[in-house]
Amino acid sequence: MSKAPFPEHLDALKLFARNGAISAELPIARLKRFSDYLHAPSGDVSVRLEFGHDEQGRKLLSASLQVQVQLLCQRCLGPMSLDIETTLKLLVLDEDHKESIDGLEAVCMEDGNLDVPGLIEDELILCLPLAPLHEDNNCNRELNLYRTKGEEAQHRTNPFSVLASLKENSANNEDDNSKT
Asked: The pTM is what?
């Protein structure tokens, strides 16, 4: 069963007034900043929003987000999938209210409007890894070959080791000659 498409406009004040909830699919294409980080910006974000109030009667927005995205692995520069599942709770304040936040993240409504897609986009960007990498450390075959050759080179005998042994032998001979 597929969810409804994400609405173009949300009346946050009405949704808070009736403790509304929305389950919808938000196309990644609508999230321009987020899609700039992706290798293949396609698909939808599964969004569950709950508009309610806390014990003190303040507006509280709870969200659950799920999406699978394609990123570029920074080790092999190949595409990789990343599943993002996150939740957030935001205290929604009116412009004229300056109150304590009680450990919750807060956002202000401007002229009764709340940029919900912008909040979703910000949260998804924060969930992205700084340097995406495949879980398999061997994803870059060329890099692994280079590393293997480097390890083999370290284990080879040093061509100058013969000179070192000659130097040691001559030092030993000089010591023997000085004792006599």
From this structure: 0.73
